[in-house]
Specification:
Blueprint lengths: L5 H20 L13 H22 L8 H20 L8 H16 L14 H22 L1 H6 L9 H40 L4 H32 L4
Helix pairs in contact: 2-4, 3-4, 3-8, 4-8, 5-7, 5-8, 7-8
Length: 244
Amino acid sequence: MVEQLPLTHLLNKALAGPVNAVLNAVHVKPENTQAPISNAVAMEVLIVLIMLLLFVIVRSRLSAENPGGLQHVFEGLHGFIQDQSKEIIGHHSEPYTPFLVALFAFVLLCNLIGVVPGFESPTATPAVPLGLAICAFLYYNLKGVQKQGPIRYAAHFAGPLPALAPLMVPIEIVSNFARVMSLTIRLFANMFAGDMVTLVFFSLIPLGVPVVFLALHIGVSLLQAYIFALLTMVYISGAVAEEH
């Protein structure tokens, strides 16, 4: 059995009963009824709470005349994602910016929290990248349907030539669903490998050298969060493009 982190142990001690009741209500049987909350779920809960706290602090201190450091950070993040989405999606990309900013921030914090002693990156567990990939998949398909209409959006799976539609439809459908696997494997594999390398070097050489791998882990965390958001932008762009 995987060793519980201190936060996971605390959550299971306080919430095991209600969590088991919810799981039973949806006909899901936990592996361990004494500890139904996994480390990954506990980390996700912590990250959501951190994000909510940061958003509340920024919202309460918004100022056009005297913006604070935290406001500058969030404005910079918002501006960066908005500029990227304008280049990829186009001039009509503004409605998608809040989702993309939240997605990037959540993935980044999930990646980086593993650097803190006593915590681990939930994105190094397959279920978390899979859940994020499914959210991105549902989001861009929903926006495509809203933008194009269900019939017109479905029609783009047939390709530009009607004669090739019987061949293109299954290929496009498989390709569309394969994006979930692509997003999941890319994020999970990189974060899992990064965590393993860092842990190995900390166990072998506890001082000095592991700092280099911590810096590498931070770099990989930033890169993978950016790639995840960037690919989501590309998928949104394809779903809402006018030519569809």
